[in-house]
Design brief:
mainly beta; seven-stranded mixed beta sheet; 13% helix; globular
Length: 249
């Protein structure tokens, strides 16, 4: 089984399954310096992206964790046209037409098959704030578990989405994970309901609980409102993917 992941930047990347089936996630593909309006503040993009059109056009299924512009921007939306898209609610993609759009609630699955591969995508809980009030205001966010099987082989990959290490989060995640792609950022740690995404301590706790074979922090310092840094993540012993890097899983 040949599974690879190419990191495009922020929370975006593309899984290749034996170069036959491609799964993309959260296409925020605008360049460094882009200003994004969030509720009550503006954030500037700090890093460039791997805008590899030949790779992005190969994507068969796009996974959208939620509708914030640091996960789905106008550039990224262009790559959704005519593709299968999985998201947590219809509102995110209301203005786009020509999509094969599937809404997955937490715990629901969608399956695809190609040759002797069976690919199961399951929506998992993600809690994009540290208290219930702000979680309701921010809205529903999906993490995704991707299980890829063929005779005598199985790979499990987990994309956390924007979440904190909230009670019960790991109750829904299997323990035999091959790779976790964990969104950090420690966003708005000092605000009401913060942090809105994992900090380094939460990442370490997540790794301790789930004990994956590999864990890759992403979504680290790509916007000016993110508060984790690559330097501290590397110092803690984690591999930080470079933009455009391809890894085997």
């Amino acid at each position: 089984m040949s599974i690879s992941f190419t990191y495009c930047g922020v929370a975006c990347g593309v899984l290749s399954i034996d170069n036959k089936f491609y799964i993309g996630i959260d296409p925020d593909l605008s360049p460094k310096g882009t200003l994004v309006q969030f509720k009550g503040f503006v954030s500037e993009k700090q890093t460039n992206v791997n805008h590899d059109k030949s790779l992005l056009n190969k994507v068969d299924v796009w996974l959208i964790t939620h509708g914030h512009q640091d996960h789905l921007d106008d550039v990224g939306k262009n790559y959704l046209k005519g593709k299968t898209v999985i998201s947590p609610n219809k509102k995110i993609l209301n203005e786009l037409s020509g999509l094969n759009n599937f809404i997955l609630k937490w715990g629901e699955e969608k399956q695809f098959s190609i040759d002797d591969y069976l690919i199961t995508i399951k929506a998992l809980p993600a809690y994009h704030a540290s208290n219930y009030i702000m979680q309701k205001i921010v809205g529903k966010v999906n993490g995704y578990q991707i299980t890829i099987t063929r005779p005598l082989q199985t790979k499990i990959i987990y994309f956390t989405g924007d979440t904190i290490l909230y009670p019960r989060l790991t109750d829904f995640v299997p323990k035999n994970i091959d790779a976790i792609f964990a969104n950090l950022g420690a966003v708005k740690s000092d605000s009401f309901g913060g942090p809105f995404t994992m900090n380094l301590k939460m990442l370490q706790q997540l790794e301790s609980i789930l004990q994956p074979r590999k864990i890759y922090p992403i979504h680290i310092d790509d916007y000016s409102h993110y508060q984790t840094t690559k330097k501290e993540v590397i110092a803690a012993g984690y591999k930080v993917l470079t933009i455009g890097e391809r890894i085997d899983i």
